[in-house]
Write a structure and sequence with these properties.
Length: 683
């Protein structure tokens, strides 16, 4: 599971917190920070940032080489992610790129910038749906203009491997301009057929009922170590039967996977013996598509807490499947930040204490917390679903039985949060949205510490905490599962952030850190995160729903005691927390209930919570937030370009690998499309 600043949270920053506004940077300043250009592009609701990779230069050469090969493996999966998000995405991206580079006509006039913006959005989202909300983009250029661009782009530039020029034109016109087709990437609206109405390329020609019956037919409910059914395949109907088209070297996406395994083999050749076995097991899985081998890989991977360099590469997160079975492809390559890891080590060493004191039914506590390993990392490369929008924390593996028997690995990504904080300095957010001076001061002084610790607690302990009641499989909550799981992890973090134990462990100076985080979290959940939603839309994404659920629930339950207050001043709305201790009590109460829902698989109660508190938007408040946000000129979403790595030889001998941060956004996207794009246009 990921913590995004939106996605991984932290929400994206963990979701929750966007690191917006000035917060004190608890990190040691990194060299060169002062003149570094953190933000390199802005369009629509998106900012494109760079991140740096401090510490890379000092790594031993063999670790740099390992990172280099893993980076290559990370880049070769990009097409998979794009195709997974919608079956027409590669056709769209390639056609737009062909126009962008080879269109022979006039590039002046209003519609060309609109076209360019649309392409930048498609790059950013790995497809035609917003990376976060999942809504299809509305182009700001006309159908006639598109026809003209296409007509003046030569055949040899266009993706005509699967479609004729006429078919391409007709199909893309519908895909791009018809608002009723492929409208939502992942539809989770209650009462609708979430399979048939989702554009995600995980199922084709099937209904929700058929898919649910298929899974029921292949699952063995008595297996104590079940595979992640359906994780790596597309479901289709052949001669009236539901079948899986498996994503492996000999199957769907094979051309991309062959390149991934090629670079993984190189990585294995320079890895330490433990890691060599891990990488070889991953290769074996990619070659066979066998999910038992994937589990074997995860079991090995989660136990390697020693290697300095680490990575994620595969079909991992299931957020985009409306039913939560199929995983998007992603990759992250990283190494440990030793200094900052001390913080997460303290937390994981005390994992059992936190579990024993969690405000949940003791029957749902784990009697023995296993192998929670936590570290702070520096990412060197992000790919697939982690690119360009990337999580700020990750906790894997996802299989419940592996987590129970072998624990999980949890990371907080420091160089990404650092880049967010640098890019947000002085943007006026807190001045606009935080009413009280005392809250602004606290957020300034303790905001980043609070965010980081909340992410640590969410990832290291929150997701791994608790246990299911006997007989509960874990998939009972269906389309509400992701939201409730994120809420559970967030509540765990919020509750313990304000625990005196945090002071005792030396992690925070006082309760002030929790107050800073609580004030920001509630304001974000009830109000400022609405900046990410288009007018008229509801909240769909799991992390955003989770934050809204928590904030709105606490607001309602605390009304009698005025725990959280909506203040109107000079025509503006503010959210103010009046009683932080009481709020912490409400977090405990809600955690108790959300844990019960998960442990008992209580679908109806989970649905009621989410539908009541997490989905619907107050149109008036929404309009106000968008106005105030626009006035500040802050784009609510961010993502990153990757650095470039270059091998340095003396004769035949590799002597160093150097990193540089000069590549632009469009430049990088076009290069990736040229150098790492092995899939046919239709798969
Ligand atoms: Zn999470």
């Amino acid at each position: 599971m990921k913590h995004t600043f939106i996605k991984i949270t932290m929400s994206i920053l963990g979701g929750a917190a966007f690191v917006l506004g000035q917060s004190a940077c608890s990190n040691v300043a990194q060299t060169g920070d002062e003149d570094f250009q953190w933000q390199i592009d802005q369009f629509d609701d998106i900012r494109v940032l760079r991140y740096t990779v401090p510490g890379f230069e000092e790594l031993p050469l063999e670790q740099k080489e390992l990172i280099y090969y893993l980076n290559q493996a990370a880049l070769w999966g990009r097409d998979i992610t794009t195709d997974q998000n919608c079956k027409w995405n590669l056709a769209v991206r390639r056609t737009l790129e062909a126009i962008y580079t080879d269109y022979t006509g006039d590039r002046t006039g209003e519609e060309w910038p609109a076209f360019e913006k649309y392409l930048k959005k498609v790059w950013f989202a790995n497809g035609i749906h917003h990376h976060y909300s999942g809504d299809k983009f509305t182009p700001e250029f006309s159908q006639e203009y598109f026809a003209k661009l296409l007509a003046q782009t030569p055949d040899e530039a266009l993706p005509l491997d699967c479609l004729s020029r006429e078919e391409l034109a007709a199909t893309l016109t519908e895909v791009i301009f018809d608002g009723s087709k492929y409208a939502t990437r992942t539809n989770q609206r209650d009462g609708e057929d979430v399979v048939a109405t989702s554009a995600i390329n995980f199922h084709e020609g099937l209904t929700q009922d058929e898919v649910e019956r298929y899974y029921a037919s292949i699952q063995d409910p008595k297996d104590p170590r079940p595979i992640s059914y359906g994780l790596n395949s597309k479901l289709v109907k052949e001669s009236g039967k539901v079948v899986e088209r498996v994503w492996f070297e000999g199957g769907m996406y094979g051309e991309a996977i062959k390149n991934i395994t090629y670079w993984l083999e190189k990585a294995a050749s320079v890895a330490n013996p433990t890691q060599k076995e891990i990488i070889e097991t991953l290769i074996a899985y990619y070659r066979s598509g066998d999910l038992r081998t994937f589990d074997a890989y995860n079991v090995l991977w989660v136990q390697d807490t020693i290697s300095n360099v680490d990575f994620v590469n595969g079909f991992i997160e299931t957020y985009n499947d409306p039913l939560g079975y199929k995983a998007g492809w992603e990759s992250s390559v990283n190494f440990r930040n030793e200094e900052a890891t001390v913080r997460t080590e303290i937390i994981s060493e005390n994992a059992q204490w936190f579990e024993d004191h969690a405000p949940i039914n003791p029957a749902f506590r784990k009697s023995e917390v296993k192998g929670v390993s936590a570290k702070v990392i520096t990412v060197a490369m992000i790919g697939g679903e982690c690119y360009p929008a990337t999580p700020i924390g990750i906790n894997l593996p996802n299989a419940d039985w592996i987590r129970k028997e072998f624990g999980s690995k949890s990371v907080t990504i420091d160089n990404i949060t650092h880049a967010y904080a640098k890019a947000a300095e002085g943007n006026g957010f807190n001045e606009e949205f935080v009413l009280r001076e005392e809250d602004r001061e606290r957020i300034k002084e303790f905001g980043r510490t609070g965010d980081n610790l909340h992410t640590d607690l969410h990832e290291c302990l929150g997701h791994g905490s608790g246990q299911l009641a006997p007989g509960v499989k874990g998939d009972e909550l269906k389309q509400y599962g992701s939201t409730l799981e994120e809420a559970r992890a967030d509540l765990f973090g919020l509750y313990f952030l304000g625990d005196p134990k945090m002071v005792e462990l030396g992690l925070v100076p006082s309760f002030e850190v929790a107050k800073a985080q609580y004030a920001h979290y509630i304001m974000n959940g009830m109000m400022t995160q609405l900046s990410r939603i288009e007018p008229g839309k509801t909240v769909e994404e799991a992390h955003m729903r989770n934050r809204k659920l928590i904030a709105e629930w606490c607001y309602e339950k605390g009304l009698d005691n005025n725990v959280i207050e909506k203040v109107k001043q000079d025509g503006k709305t503010y959210i103010v927390v009046n009683d932080f201790e009481a709020l912490r009590g409400l977090f405990a109460e809600l955690l108790h209930e959300v844990q019960r829902i998960k442990s008992e698989g209580d679908f109806e109660a989970g649905r009621a919570l989410v539908e009541k508190y997490a989905v619907n938007v107050d149109a008036e408040l929404h309009r106000e937030v968008l106005e105030r946000y626009n006035a500040l000129g802050i784009a609510p979403y961010s993502g990153f370009v990757n650095p470039q790595y270059e091998m340095v030889y003396e004769g035949d001998k590799l002597v160093d690998i150097r990193v540089n941060y000069t590549e632009g956004y469009a430049e990088q996207m076009l290069r990736y499309s040229k150098e790492y794009s092995p899939l046919p246009t239709l798969n």
